[in-house]
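BUG: 3D viewer hangs when loading the predicted structure for this chain

Environment: internal workstation, default settings.
Expected: structure renders.
Actual: progress bar stalls at 90%.

Input used:
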Amino acid sequence: MTLDLEYPEGATPLTDEEKEGLLLSHITDRSELNLWEQRGISSAEQWAFKRRPVNLLSEEFIRELHKRMFRKVWRWAGTRRQTDKNIGGPWSQIPMALRDLCADVQLWIENSTFLPDEIAARFHHRLVSIHYFPNGNGRHARLMADLVLVHLLGCKRFTWGGENLVDAGECRRRYIRALHAADRSDYSLLLLFVRS
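Structure tokens produced before the viewer hung:
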């Protein structure tokens, strides 16, 4: 069977080779894929919030979380992308960009550079912008931001618009607009969105 995916606004298309990494041959469309991925995400959330990870701001943890989110659906879960995408810099520069981001967040926390919500929102935006994985970056970065809030900053999770951000709709459009504004260093829309 062929995996026929329609991509909502702001989604990253998979290459044919990446689509071949699908572990579940019965999945043929986006709605089935989203259902199976959500099961893994729910399981990963339970694991990640159970106890405070020692190395939350590390490439090792970031990869492990993605793997736990998508390992039952994608063979490449938890692995760095090997192709350039419609978002993110060259794939060869990803490790350095991620190390810089994690170091920046640690510094922001230690020095109270920003309020907690802004630290988590900026972290989320940059992690999405790096686009470490072939797919699932937005969902992964939202969960990572929530983990930073809860485990490192002692705050409640974001509400992320209170609706499904995977499917196309007004909530997703607001989220994408907020990310585009953050690309221009304007975090005001993102800060409003994450608690709406």
